[in-house]
Amino acid sequence: xxxxxxxxxxxxxxxxxxxxxxxxxxxxxINPKAPxxxxxxxxRHVTSFREVSEFSAEESKRMLEFVSETAREAGLDDYRxxxxxxxxxxxxxxxxxxxVLGGKIGGLE
Length: 109
Prior knowledge:
alpha+beta, HIT family, subunit A, 23% helix
């Protein structure tokens, strides 16, 4: 169920998707931290990774496969996948999302 006040719920519906599959979308981060910086969003609003158990085992598997396939389709062989959990962990938008980062990241190769 989407939340009308959630920016990512809006982007799931109306965003410029680089990839879309039943249940998940990928978009470009508007403030990239690497040459390739994509966000993978579940269509269903889940606040954070803490609530990942709200997804069935099959949905969780498809979500991880979607993250991997998004990186592959972006031409990435080597990359990072990051999930910030909670305000203290750097999460600023409270809709579960995965950062897929490729290339030089914050001074690191």
